[in-house]
């Protein structure tokens, strides 16, 4: 599938994995809308992508909290108004609160589940009719934490285990309409997630550009074939 002149909406596209995906898609000629809870951060990221060598598609920035269903509907409507269609929805926005369950607050639990899981449900509800019209693609960004549990990960594990299962069930629901649904489950990625400061010690990790290339290849694949769940991890372990 040629990607030029297609359209994509990426939640949390202002940084990390979302930014890497947006950058890669714009380079292929995709018109991309990115969202952030901060309009300023979204616009700053969009301007960076516009200035990058090889950028072919257009890019727009929107303020949106994925926990707000009406906000997601409004952004989808604005994408349709601007470009007339929606081919790809990338549910990327996510948060992480990590603490032993006895120390995890109610607010941290709710924020994790509402963002990482309910926010994705809102995304498909907001975009499904537009994706039916294009026989489009709904992609979620889960995690290897969606099949591998760890101490202090009760909220994050619950959200990502749920997201992995949710995506697979949605895939079965929507393929009758020609909508492809898949999830990418990364391991360690060199991003600022959870306030991590990226430096040269992160060179062994997956880079955000690598996920961008993976998404481009996935979207270009002939529609008759669907990798419905993709685990991706660093090929090497960190130097001890």
From TrEMBL:
Pfam families: adh_short (PF00106)
Protein name as catalogued: 3-oxoacyl-[acyl-carrier protein] reductase
Record has Oxidoreductase as a keyword: yes
Xref: NCBIfam families: PRK07326.1
Keywords (A to Z) from UniProt: Oxidoreductase
Record family assignment: Belongs to the short-chain dehydrogenases/reductases (SDR) family.
GO MF annotations, alphabetized: 3-oxoacyl-[acyl-carrier-protein] reductase (NADPH) activity
Signal peptide range in chain numbering: none
GO biological process assignments: monocarboxylic acid metabolic process
InterPro entries found in the cross-reference section: KR_dom (IPR057326), NAD(P)-bd_dom_sf (IPR036291), Sc_DH/Rdtase_CS (IPR020904), SDR (IPR050259), SDR_fam (IPR002347)
């Amino acid at each position: 599938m040629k990607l030029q002149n297609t359209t994509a909406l990426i939640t949390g596209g202002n940084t990390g994995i979302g930014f890497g995906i947006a950058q890669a898609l714009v380079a292929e000629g995709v018109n991309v809308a990115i969202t952030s809870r901060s309009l300023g951060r979204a616009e700053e990221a969009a301007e960076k992508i516009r200035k990058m060598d090889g950028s072919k598609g257009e890019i727009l920035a929107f303020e949106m909290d994925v926990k707000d269903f009406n906000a997601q509907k409004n952004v989808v409507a604005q994408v349709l108004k601007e470009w007339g269609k929606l081919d790809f929805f990338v549910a990327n926005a996510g948060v992480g609160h990590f603490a032993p369950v006895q120390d995890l607050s109610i607010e941290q639990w709710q924020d994790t589940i509402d963002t990482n899981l309910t926010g994705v449900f809102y995304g498909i509800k907001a975009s499904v009719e537009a994706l039916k019209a294009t026989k489009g693609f709904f992609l979620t960004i889960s995690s290897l934490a969606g099949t591998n549990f760890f101490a202090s990960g009760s909220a994050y594990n619950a959200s990502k285990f749920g997201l992995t299962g949710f995506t697979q069930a949605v895939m079965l629901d929507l393929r009758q309409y020609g909508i492809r649904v898949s999830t990418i489950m990364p391991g360690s990625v060199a991003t600022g997630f959870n306030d991590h400061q990226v430096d040269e010690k992160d060179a062994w990790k997956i880079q955000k550009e690598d996920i961008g290339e993976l998404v481009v290849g996935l979207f270009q694949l002939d529609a008759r074939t669907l990798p419905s769940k993709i685990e991706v991890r660093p090929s090497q372990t960190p130097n001890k």
